[in-house]
Amino acid sequence: MSTTAMNSTDFRQRDSFIELGARQRAIALLDQGTARELLGPFDRVKSPWLEPQGITAQADDGVVVMKGTLGQQPAVVLAIEGGYEGGSMGEVGGAKIAAALELAAEDNRQGVPTCAVILFETGGVRLQEANLGLAAIADIHAGIADLRRYQPVIGVSAGTVGCYGGMSIAAGLCSYLVCTRDARLGLNGPQVIEQEAGIAEFDSRDKPFIWSLTGGEQRYQSGLVDAYVQDDLAQIHAAVLQCLRAGLPRQHRSDRFRDYLARLAEVDTSVQATAESVRHIYTKGSAS
To answer: Distances from the Cα of 76 to the Cαs of 29, 104, 147, in angstroms?
Structure first.
């Protein structure tokens, strides 16, 4: 599904999702009055590794776990706060997400159809926590793969941080992905690509070029995102509900990896990729 661009009146009157913090986003998606936070900031579950490195540790480690109902179905919303350390994923925040996914899967095995929504605003692993963060992200991947056998796991990337690194793999494992125009989705961020491959390959200062290849609209047109919506709370909420009501996909996108590998094998790396060439590659054949 996709929505058309808003006119100026609708734009001014909308409720922006991007302007909300992680906690507000999670509450807004759940049915009114049902949200209940687990391991909130007053539980003081924070990273023990940041303060020795001179970094203030946030009491919730930048991850909000909210339980409630979504469309009257049991749900857990896992929201990453992009404003804290770039939404980086460390040991504690990663463990909160992985444990919530594991508990949701256990709910299903006990006959409670709990689904999950993950709000991705993350640059990937927190470098200050290195392997501990990577291990936590691996646990998140396993948690998504387990839960999606029972209920949809729906990812949302609204902006403005984007979704990168190991957490972009987590997004790829989701049953459905919802993006706005402001979203960006990629394994490596622009500055990392420029650093490793050179500015001729990827100029991290060229914002239109970045969005043309990794922005939400491009990912939707390439078939890597299921719903493309405006930065509007009502539209994002409706898209998440539509994904939930669609049930499990016939085949998860990540299970079609052979098709995507075949498409990627056709890429001529001697030529600079364009938005049009990427869309053509991803949408033809069995990967479409």
So the answer is: 10, 8, 12
